[in-house]
Amino acid sequence: MARAVELARRGRGATAPNPCVGAVLVRDGQVAAEGWHTRFGKPHAERECLAAARASGVDPRGATMYVTLEPCNHHGKTPPCTEALIEAGVAEVVVGTRDPNPIAAGGVEKLQAHGIKVTVGVLERECRDLIADFLLWQQTHSSYNILKMAATLDGKIAAASRKPEPVSCPESFARVHALRALVGAVIVGGNTFYADDPSLTCRMDGLPEDFVQPFGVVISSRLPEDPSRFTLLRDRPERAIFMTSQTAARSPQADVLRRRGTSVWPLPGRAGSLALACGFERLRYDCGCHYTLCEGGGRLALAIIEQGLADEVIHFVAPRILGDDCAPAAYSGREAPTMGQALDFRIAECEPVGTDLMLTLRNR
Description:
This protein is α/β, with parallel strands linked by helices. The protein is built from twelve helices and 16 strands.
């Protein structure tokens, strides 16, 4: 099942708004074939795995299939996977987690009714984490928001001068651009935008020719006086979005941005405490962004977390100490909280990346 989870991750992003799923066929304790859901509208993981078995001359009859998500039991863009497993003569199916979609559920019972042994709940938490995005899309109108942060051991994201300097190692930088290749929008706060002049593009090697760069989104109540000074607004103004206060959205600066092709979206709330959920919902439905990557500074990061909009946190820890009390912190904006008021997370994954440590955090 751990291998099936690993395979499932290969399809992340391409399968949206469907879940990513992995499957492994086992015979006599040995892996006989593997498969995963590669892209929305393509065959599901079980069918890919069975096809790989047949292509290798492996007869799936009597074998065991491990699959991260309950095989679907309905006709959608592809026929039910339960039928494929029954027709193939698979003897046992081990399922990571049940399908939360009532339309697709019932696969376990269908398999059992045809004499196939079914075990449910192997590595269930890991398999549930795989479909956290799918669950969110099923239950809310929001995009799935990944919050990225890179900080020193003492939690600093820049020197006190705020000079744009790398905190993490080149390998972590490459991971961030792999994340940018996954998402439909890269989001920063106003302080980051004005201090760093970021392009908010994916600069990963080997991108396909038809790759579309993510939207560059700035969340700030302050709009630029001279858009031509900023890389994002010079190079691709039509792919830039400002989420701002309702007052700023009616300003002359907003009119200048709109004339250049940049979108300016008013959000409820006041300057410094905008209601961000409306913006994320609009990214999903107006711009087709199933995933976003939030790379803003400490205040924006904390606002996204406190508003319940950080669906996944990727936190890079660099083994460096700045030791400057005046340097900006990774998460900031609260006043004198107690340790009992700390915001708690669960460490879902912990992986060395170059000289850094990459933590994947989820809500408990």
